[in-house]
Design a protein that fits this description.
The chain has one domain. The protein contains three helices and eleven strands. Strand 9 and strand 10 form a beta hairpin.
Length: about 150
């Protein structure tokens, strides 16, 4: 049983290059994660996060303004604009490969939404990030982070 809770974690700015949407995006930075609102988490086990994703055997929805977490439980529509199909660890950070649908590509390419904000499960006592549950497109990010662009791998 999880002794955890869920939280909207970390926005990543999406800067499409020539109307091309990114396939791989950083979802959780390495180490300590501090939100604009003062909440703190720790990405101390990135491989554990990836293993939890694999064990679920489901792609994670990418939605608008966290509708999977906020609207779907009320029986309201929460359509996906993309799906996180794969996770990988790069230098302690968690990156996700998003398969965008046409609506998602259009929304991102036209900059209607500029940030990704993953929802996490974390330990209540220590703040350790345990799992991802969904990713929302948002324009109100929680963290001060650089945008994604062609030099993201440098």
């Amino acid at each position: 049983m999880w002794n955890s809770t869920a939280a909207t974690l970390r926005p990543t700015e999406i800067n499409p290059i020539e109307n091309q949407v990114p396939e791989w995006v950083e979802l959780i930075p390495s180490g300590a994660v501090i939100g604009r609102d003062g909440r703190r988490w720790m990405n101390s086990d990135p491989l554990g996060i990836i293993q939890a994703f694999i064990a679920r055997c489901l792609d994670l929805p990418v939605d608008i303004e966290h509708s999977t977490e906020l609207k779907a439980p009320k029986g309201e529509a929460a359509p996906a604009v993309g799906w996180v199909r794969e996770l990988k660890e790069i230098a302690g950070a968690i990156w996700g490969r998003i398969e965008w649908n046409e609506a998602g590509r259009q929304i991102v390419a036209t900059k209607q939404y500029r940030y990704l904000s993953p929802v996490i499960r974390y330990g209540r006592t220590n703040g350790d990030i345990l799992d991802l549950t969904s990713v929302g497109l948002t324009n109100m990010p929680n963290l001060h982070l650089p945008g994604l662009n062609q030099s993201v791998w440098q």
